[in-house]
Amino acid sequence: MVKNVAIRALAERWLKKRISPQQTLTLNRKNIFIFPGLFGLFYIAMTMCLFILAINYQNNLLLFMSQFLASLLLITLFTTYKNFSGLHFHAKAVKPVFMGEDVVLQIKIATQKQHCGHLEARWRHQRQKHLIDLESDDTTIRLPVSTTQRGEFTLPRVTFSLAYPLGLIRCWTHIDFDQNYLVYPQKQPCALLLSSAPVEEGEQQTIASGNDDFYAIQPWQKTDPLHRVAWKRVAKGGDWTTKVFSTPQAQTGYLDIAEHGADVELALKRLSWQVDTLARQGATYGLRLHQLTIAPANTDAHRKACLRALAVFAKSTTL
Amino acid sequence: MMMENIPVKGYLPTILIALFYGVIALSMGSNVHFWVLLLCGCVLFVRLSLYFGHNKHTPKKRTVNLLAVLSAIALLTTSGDLGLLPIMINLLILACSLKLMLIAYRRDFYQLIICATFLVACGFILYQSLFRSVFYALALIFLFYILLSAHAPYARAKIRQKRLAILLIQALPVAVLLFVFLPRLPPLWKMPEGKQTETGLSETMTPGDIAKLTKSDKLAFTATFDQRPPAPQNRYWRAFSLESFDGKTWTVSDTRHFARRQLQQINRVFTPRTQGVAIDYEIILEPTQKQWLVGLDTATPSDSSYSQNLWQGWDYQLSTRKPVFSRYAYALTSYPNTIRNQGIGSLDSQVNLQVPEQGNEETVDWVAALRQQHPNNQGFAKALMAYFKHNDFEYTLTPPPMTTDPVDSFLFTYKAGFCAHYASAMAYAFRLAGIPARIVSGYQGGTALNDNTLSIYQYDAHAWVEAWIDENGWQQFDPTTMVAPSRVNGGFEHAARYSGELIGEHPFNGLSHQGIFAYFSALGAKMDYMWSRWFLGFNEERQTDIFKHILGKLSPLRIALLGSSIILLIIGLLTLYFMPRRQRAPLAEHQRNYLTAVQLIEKFTGIRREDKSARRYFATVKGTLPDPVRRRFLTITEYFEHQEYDAPDPKVVIKTTLAQLKTALKNTKPILGDPPSP
Amino acid sequence: MRTDFQQILATLLAHIIGKPHQLKLAMTCLLAEGHLLIEDLPGMGKTTLSHALARVFNLSYSRIQFTSDLLPADILGVNVFDQQKHNFRFHSGPIFNELILADEINRASPKTQSALLEAMEESQVSLDGETHQLPSPFFVIATQNPSYQSGTYPLPESQLDRFLMRISLGYPSYEAEKQMLTQSSMKPQLQLADTISPVDLIDYQRQALAVNCADSIIHYILRLVNKSREQSAYPQPLSPRASKALLRASKAWAFLHDRDYVLPEDVQAVFAAVAEHRLKGVQLEWGEESALSQQLLDSVDPLAA
After folding, report:
1. Containing domain of residue C62, as a range?
2. ipTM higher than 0.90?
3. Which of A125, A176, A192, B406 is spaced 20 to 30 A from B445 at the CA atom?
4. Do the Cβ atoms of A213 and C232 come within 8 Å?
């Protein structure tokens, strides 16, 4: 077991030097490995057998057959190489996901006129294979990774291999797409808990007035201002109803980890859900994680930053 | 990569492989047991129904295992008399058929392909005619097509065919080069023999036991003459001599065998003193599994290069060092007028005067009487021949069996038989008279294939006598000519047709001699002959011939040169196939001119263009250029800009300015080092 | 450069001193029938520029100050009920002018922003089922204040794409500011001969569109655009709308410089203005050089065969 790990580590180091991590890669002789597959080795053994048979039987037909088989092997060696070289891989940036969902690495393969056959893709030390037909219009491979914990991780290498045309020679490569992926804590539904912000920079809680993002209708109550009544409805002979406008600048508050209990993981999960929900509502919110404070905002970038903070919080392995 | 798990329904390569096995098994004819063929057919049927989806599941593994056990038992019990090769073939077909029922993974598929290739190879071992060879070659191509389809399943059939064709055409020249120029190696060890040939010359001859002589119309050998072939009555082809007689059976003498082996080991070769006219010819012998070779008396190897393999025995017989397992071509020069009075005197007389102690009393008495009448050897011989002529002897392929005192029965009772009877009686008579005599087994006659070539078939097999008469050495006597001259003059076939006794192997044999069939069968025979001569007969000697032809002398240096040039040729072919072609579209003229100018300026100033546009590059370098150069380069830059981005004007030619730029550059001392700061 | 445009440039320079490149870009934008986005701190001369442009091209001009409580109706107009005639009459909003200055567009709510942007896109206003055509030529000069202030709604990436160009005036040079201070406080008079009529402008626009563009320029543009799509260094790749914008702007620039064919230099000159805001995707920081577009330009060879 230990030996296995040590060998793997050694192999990884050598690979890192040979095929450096990059997001796009075109295959050339520096990053292609080529060798006969198992079928190819049997084929070679068979050809040698036939050759010996031909000599012993003094049979010209067998002799020519064995020589033809050998030439065919030679030709397929170059054909397979040429069929593999020149493939251009471009990995799209990986989207972060919540724990439990699968991270999907999308790899677009650009082919040239000579590429054909089935390309096989899999994660380097796993068995499940994905086949893609290089001649079809859609040459995108989607490789999933299951997520078991939150944090920031590096994607393992992807192994691509090809054995076209006759399956005798195998060409393969291990590509590191230089992608880190982020797994946010799993969402745990709970109540929204925003603590009020200390007054800073003269910011005040703005009272919703005149800001008109029409949000809902509710039955009119005596205390509702008249200018909020839905007069069109009244004119048509309906009930008096009040228009309610959302106040995008509702309470700005902070989501604070300190207020979510001693269980850190559970707290993170709850915060994760809250961030997601608040962001969906378009609310402005901030995040406080002990030392780390993120000022309130309501943009998507802000949401991502908050979720990222939650994901990597107190993780010893920072990348 | 091919898919890991092979689908059951609708997967074309599986059904194609099943078809392949069925066809191949069928083509092997009598080498494959009937029930194996049946099993193959069943498997094909099963796979077809799976392919079309009538059944959903492959047969259970247990069923197949049971079938396997049963088949193994059946094979063991029914294959007693088969040779090793047919047993292997049956086993292979059986195993693969069973595997075909269970095919599920990629590796199963690959295993089947390998076994299928072996089967095709077996086909090449068993059959060597042109037709068969083409058939098995096509089968091999079909196999590759199946393999290709498995790896590119979604391509259209036409595209797959095209790709396969490209691969095969690329491989073919390399293979041909290897075939012609790779040195031939001698066999490493003795191979198991194939099915015993029922046809062909036997090394024992017991005339009395054969009630019906079946004659095969299989080809025995072809002979191609430099000049016109000899007349039919001179076409006696010696194969080997039968010198031991026990009263009933003639066999090859053990003493002779022993002596031959000894002489071969010490490498003593017999070179007969030849005289008279020489006839040059080449023989292509069908496989005999034996070591004797046919030739006209007195045959010598044409070329010293043949002396490696051919060995001439003291009994004027040619043999090879290795048994003839596949068609063998060799060239001979025969001197028919040679007097064959050499040989090992003591050995020859000892062996060829041996008569059995008892039996055939009548013959003994009769010979004694005849000998008294003709004490002269020549006279005695003539009398013997006359006896056959004038005593109502008959030539028949179906004589009555003569088991006791067969010579007596033949000479005095039945007086009917075929060549073996006559030869046996005559040789025996000679021996009784004290004249060394033996039977020569071989062929007589031959049908003309074209003006220079004869085809000799198994039904031309013949036996005649040679006796050592005084100083003239071995003389040939054929008693059959006394009885059935047409046999000798017109060939056996002619005689047989005359007597209505030709039995051939093919049901349509009679048909093949009529009209259009005759034409096609003759054509087929001719093509087969060319095939044998030029491809199958391409052996070590021929290869050496070609080398000599190309190189002149065969020195190690020249051979090494030839070897390296062949390797270079192969590398050249590979480069031709696989060198990346220039994908760029050819540059337009103005672009070329501009780029040439840029290169000149780059070399001059040391400032590379990198990613700058034309104008910017000019602005960058203009400070460092001397006046005449700058003016010219400006013109070229403007010209390029105009042609590239504005309307291209074909009339404007920039070559003169380019030339002027070159001269201006030459006349200026080059600026080396850092360019001046802008 | 064309003589008439040279005069215009001189006139404009008199108003906004020391920024010839930005002024040329603004003129190019007009010639290419595109809308302009100016991002600057307050007081740089955005309003002056728009006003000057309107005067120099003789375009009817209106300025809309975007505030947080601005309603779409304030921009587009409103149907007013006429008591006497008993029907609704359309009162056009300030958008119905040939040159609009949408000042501080990032202070209005997204709803108001989209009202303007949709009208820009469709060249018409639909209100209560009736459509009213916007005038032709029609330009919008929108301004954004780049400093982060809460309570703003910066234009999202999808809307930024609608502006052909984005320029930033920036602080004037020492000399320019000195000149500005020392010159007379009177606004310089504009001679009629220094202006171009809208009809002429439309004709110039047509001519600009007809400038010859060789295949190699198209390839160059495509290479630039594709490079942004392939590499991860560019988070917001350039869309097909961007390539069309680039082509139009390059042609207009070539036309401005009195050429009837496009050079790679033209593409390079307008590239930062056309592409940077699309590449960055978010509001650019104040004073930020056009790093991304420069990086992209440097990595593509205009002459690659």
Report:
1. 3-184+195-299
2. no
3. B406
4. no
